[in-house]
Amino acid sequence: MKTKMDFPNINKRKPDGLQDTGKAFRVLIVDDSMFVTKQIEQILTSEGFDVAATAENGQDGLEKYKELYPNIDLVTMDITMPVMDGVTALEKIIEFDKEAKIIMISALGKQDLVKKSLLLGAKNYIVKPLDRKKVLERVLMTLKKQ
Length: 146
Known about the structure:
Oligomer: single chain
Radius of gyration: 16 Å
Number of domains: 1
CATH architecture: 3-Layer(aba) Sandwich
Helix content: 25-40%
Shape: globular
Structural class: alpha/beta
Strand content: 15-25%
Mean pLDDT: 90
Number of strands: 5
Low-confidence stretches: none
Largest sheet: 5 strands, parallel
């Protein structure tokens, strides 16, 4: 019977979701679509990120951010959600933590809300439908900016 030792890993590269210390980046996903949440979660966990929590609306996301603070490295925030939209939640999180790294997720045709979000303090944005390569690229770009 063959074991893992019989198949050495030829792609010896560090997963993108790990910090230089070896600790995983912690992410909060805020989206009212369970499908999108699962998609982002799968993309990030496949690269070693730790999805610390998920929230289904801006109010829930704000509360979870405050609960997890300061142990959260990044937030992905949908723009259109019930109870509290993503732009309002973004404003409230930035009010609470000026250093928060938030990436807005929007559907096509919401450019005005994306611009407003960036002016309010969002660090980046991703347009749906989600593309694995783009999600990882934007997440890493945002985490590397100091």
